[in-house]
């Protein structure tokens, strides 16, 4: 057991001090944004470096950068030696580097550029029920996002990092035995379907997303040599989806209200090529799985940015039943997300 001052076991901070840490969370987020944008972690992957070199290569003033790094050192992002002014990666620092397997650098950049301003309107959301993003941006978030290709590219990269960090255990747990044609609704660049196609050599599939989003998928399919059995299609899942005997929605339905999610499920119900088509969802379930704090954080994100929500097992059962699907089982995984399996009925 770790021993604190005077041989005493460490105690939790007083409630007011713990609350002050929570209240200062927005400052830590902005400090992480600076570190990610300056690629500090990238520069430290090969070992510690003097602060002045980091500042010079980043185009930042040494004194402000030192204070930012020291604040983040408290959060185990960096280690800072005040005597030598040397900086090294802390326990969490590697995740801010680009190109590493567990990187969330794109999330650090994107959330501050897309989510930070809307969350300043959370009071108005509580007053009116409207998403804070609608109030801050003057339009629904996805409409605003689609106005500029660079926004779409940045957001897609961030979501790739984000979902890789929280859903990989669930994707690894997806079972597709007997499926012939899997349609990945909202499949973005095809990362998930590529993973599944490598595990199921006989599987055919379609990566389906908005036309400007799915443009990135063919290159990835070719790179992984699955383009002979995995194709792409662009469209609006509120209007029409491709036919298949199995449908995958990975982290999609939580973006939408029950009404909108119901429209998506209805389109799948209509398009299915067999009466008992399978439906596989990779989502959080508020009363199941590990890391419930992640699910609650995501629920707050949905409140501020979109019309969606994270759902309980009962809510998932009700939503599916109302739109022609029977909930078969919910399988918790080692991560914060679950695999929800359902079957088309009626």
Q: pLDDT under 50 segments (min length 5)?
A: none
| Secondary structure: number of strands | 10
Under CATH, the topology of the largest domain is which? Rossmann fold
Mean pLDDT: 93
CATH architecture of the largest domain: 3-Layer(aba) Sandwich
- Share of residues in strands: 15-25%
User: What's the CATH class of the largest domain, please?
Assistant: Alpha Beta
Distance between the termini: 59 Å
The outline comes out as globular
Main beta sheet, described? 7 strands, mixed
Placed side by side, the strands forming the largest sheet appear as 6-5-4-7-8-10-9
Q: Count the helices. How many?
A: 16
* CATH homologous superfamily heading of the largest domain: Vaccinia Virus protein VP39
Task: Tell me the Rg in angstroms.
Answer: 22 Å
Describe what this molecule looks like in 3D.
This is Methyltransferase. The protein is α/β, with parallel strands linked by helices and 346 residues long. It has two domains: 12-111, Winged helix-like DNA-binding domain superfamily/Winged helix DNA-binding domain (Arc Repressor Mutant, subunit A), CATH 1.10.10; 167-344, Vaccinia Virus protein VP39 (Rossmann fold). Helices cover 46% and strands 15% of the residues. It is built from 16 helices and ten strands. A seven-stranded mixed sheet has the order 6-5-4-7-8-10-9, sandwiched between helices. A three-stranded antiparallel sheet has the order 1-3-2.
